[in-house]
């Protein structure tokens, strides 16, 4: 019997993406409400309120908005033929890899507001101890990405001879 070459020599990147800024829409709305409230408060109380107060409030709201934008923009998902890598972080970057053969199930979640934008979430249920559930948030073409993940999960399992075995609690293995 001849041994197959290790699958690591054939790894290629299949897809790279990131979440839409729409996932921050709730926080962006809050920032807009704060800015509007500060503007109205300034118009109503500009004679008694020192100018520094609304300026500081506006600066804080804008700084928070920039932070939200940068936090979302810093997230990158990379799907290769063997693993999914998540990169995130503005000042401190964190990269987390999960081997595809650990994926047990995939789910596409498409809330109406994301579906209207051609986006959705792909949820991966895995046997990975550090990442039992991996959520690829607000990505383009989630159904297509899920299909790519499933194809590569099956390929890498066949190459490595990995089989998924579910053991129900309370049942004995024979």
Describe the structure.
Helix content is 38%, strand content 26%. With 174 residues, the protein is α+β, with helices and mostly antiparallel strands. The two termini are 29 Å apart. The model is unreliable at 1-5 (pLDDT under 50).
Note the main attributes of this structure.
174 residues, alpha+beta, four-stranded antiparallel sheet, three-stranded antiparallel sheet, 7 strands, 26% strand, disordered N terminus
Structure described in brief:
With 174 residues, the protein is of the alpha+beta class.
Q: Which structural class matches the secondary elements?
A: alpha+beta
Topology as a string of helices (H) and strands (E): EHHEEEEHEEH
Strand content: 25-35%
Poorly predicted spans: 1-5
Per DSSP E runs of 2 or more residues, the count of β-strands stands at 7
Describe the main β-sheet briefly: 4 strands, antiparallel
Mean residue pLDDT: 90
Instruction: Please estimate the helix content.
Output: 25-40%
The side-by-side strand order for the widest beta sheet comes to 1-2-3-4
Count of DSSP H/I helices: 4
Shape: elongated
Give the termini distance in whole angstroms: 29 Å
User: Which value, in Å, is the CA radius of gyration?
Assistant: 23 Å
